[in-house]
Amino acid sequence: MASESSFDVVSKVERQEVDNALNQASKEIAQRFDFRGVDAEIRWSGE
């Protein structure tokens, strides 16, 4: 019989890293040719 295994998943998010990622994504959206003239944006809706 196979032994049962378990593990815990823990996610810790650094707010500064999320902010950096959102700023970078926003810059990329603004510069993409296929998004020109489109009202596209990215927003943080978490804590």
Description of the molecule:
The chain is mainly α. The protein has a domain at 15-41. The chain has one helix spanning 15-31. The relative contact order is 0.15.
Brief description of this entry?
The protein has one helix and no strands.
Measured as a percent range, the helix fraction is 25-40%
Secondary-structure-derived class: mainly alpha
**Gyration radius, in Å:** 19 Å
Helix-strand pattern: H
Q: Main sheet?
A: none
Give the overall pLDDT as a whole number.
Answer: 85
Query: Uncertain segments of ≥5 residues (pLDDT<50)?
Result: none
Key features of this structure:
about 45 residues, mainly alpha
Detail the topology: elements first, then pairings.
Layout: H1 15-31
